[in-house]
């Protein structure tokens, strides 16, 4: 491991990087593993696509809202106890998903699953701030993200085969087994990394004070907002790609995983590019490059659809480039939004995550409600988000740099 990716001396005994990767993998696996099952869920429960989308949208709501609570809880009581409780909830909720007899109960179980998943992801982000030097955090996140990309890369492929062989319940059984393994590893090897327990973090006055500190920082918004918009762009494909590829472009269900994995390989490539760019040109310039790629991809996607191109290869190219841009944007956004707040790392990570999920919920809702059997609504959404990413990086980030 590169010295710039090593934890501080007091945590050198613990396998933090593998644990961080495992915690962060739960989120993409929670969505990507059952993407190929979305059309089947609509047929099984005899509901429209917009109802099935609620299994994603309610997950996003639960994930986003819980971050406002889990972050402060981990600042007050420590990372370890909050994480272990979250993993236990995730494990139980996965079992409930697998056994759900109706779409309503599945949606409710997905909401509970999101609360547990949220604990894992938020704690991972806070541990990066706790256990690594601030100047190395972006590189640590990029390194973790490179491995993290294996989850959305392999998840849809595995999910496609599980759907074809065993049906939609198999994905949730798999998630339950995985969370059990992560819980066991955490009990065994995860140390407490919060060395600055804040007794006031969960008191209303302390909570409001921490929120004011974080939300009043232009540096936070300069990173969190473009990062959230970039996540919204990839969530447009997460929520809409299975319906477009399988139902509109007639891609076989068994092939969907490979198609989605190709798009996700763009994210893997983007994190590698980010790791190369950071030591050479610095985070601000790398952020501008990533945002420019987001804009260019959206414009090209919309232009191609506008001239009548409707082919699976166009979808794959747009997914690949959008996720490539996110692979550059995300590590910079995450580290830049949390690093300035050593005493409020959990709160900052929670607020950032809540913003991500708010944007994702809005995007998923729009994708579901505008689906009309063509590629045009998805292309328009991705193009709009690309423009917003581009503008936010240059307007807010430039202002933050000038006042630093």
TrEMBL record:
Q: Which CDD domains match?
A: MFS_MdfA_MDR_like
Stored Gene3D superfamilies: Multidrug resistance protein D
Q: Which residues form the signal peptide?
A: none
Has UniProt tagged this entry with the keyword Membrane?
A: yes
Pfam families assigned? MFS_1
Is-annotated flag, keyword Membrane? yes
Location (main, coarse): membrane
Highest taxon, organism lineage? Bacteria
Q: How does it sit in the bilayer?
A: Multi-pass membrane protein
Keywords, sorted A to Z: Cell inner membrane, Cell membrane, Membrane, Transmembrane, Transmembrane helix, Transport
Output the InterPro entries linked to this UniProt entry: Efflux_drug-R_Bcr/CmlA, MFS, MFS_dom, MFS_trans_sf, Sugar_transporter_CS
The transmembrane residues are: 12-30, 50-70, 82-101, 107-128, 140-162, 168-190, 228-249, 255-274, 286-306, 345-369, 375-397
Q: Where is the Major facilitator superfamily (MFS) profile domain?
A: 16-404
What's this protein's family per the entry? Answer: Belongs to the major facilitator superfamily. Bcr/CmlA family.
Q: How is this protein named in the record? A: Bcr/CflA family efflux transporter
